[in-house]
Amino acid sequence: MAVQSLEERMTIVEQELAKLKEQIQVDKKDDSEPPWKQIIGIFKDDLLFDEAEKLGREWRESQRMEYDDHADSPA
């Protein structure tokens, strides 16, 4: 590899930075809408998500029952 001057290296870095900035502008989505609104409904009719939701609810209920059982016992 040839030895480059600082000026040549900076020119290359500036060119790469310009390419990255351009790519970011192209990839940027419409900012008029909050990001959370862009994902609303993505799990609609998803059986795996429904199963995960059911299992999470069952686990939370089991924790609530376990807590309630301990709350009733004398200290």
Proportion of helical residues = 55-70%
**Overall pLDDT level:** 85
Order of helices and strands: HHH
Please give the alpha-carbon distance between the first and last residues. 76 Å
- Major sheet details: none
Shape: elongated
How much strand content do the residues show?
under 5%
Number of E strands = 0
- Quickly count the domains: 1
Radius of gyration: 27 Å
Number of helices: 3
> Structural class, please?
mainly alpha
Q: Which consecutive residue ranges, at least 5 long each, have pLDDT under 50? A: none
Question: Can you walk me through this structure?
Answer:
- The structure is a single chain.
- With 75 residues, the chain is an all-alpha fold.
- It has one domain.
- It contains three helices and no strands.
- The chain has helices at 6-27, 35-38, 47-72.
- It is elongated and about 80 Å long.
- The chain starts with 5 loop residues before the first helix and ends with a helix.
- The relative contact order is 0.05.
- The mean pLDDT is 85.
Quick synopsis:
With about 80 residues, the protein is an all-alpha fold.
Name some characteristics of this structure.
mainly alpha; 3 helices
Question: How are the secondary structure elements laid out?
Answer:
Layout: H1 6-27, H2 35-38, H3 47-72
